[in-house]
Amino acid sequence: MTGSDSVESAKAVIILTEVSKALKVTDIFLAEHVHRPISELTGVLDTLDDYLGRADKLTTAVDKILKFIDTALRIGGRFARAAPPPISTILSAIVELIKNLRITGILRKALGEVKSIAYKIKTDFMDKAKKGVKTVLEKIESLTGNIPG
Question: What pTM value is reported for the model?
Answer without folding.
Answer: 0.54
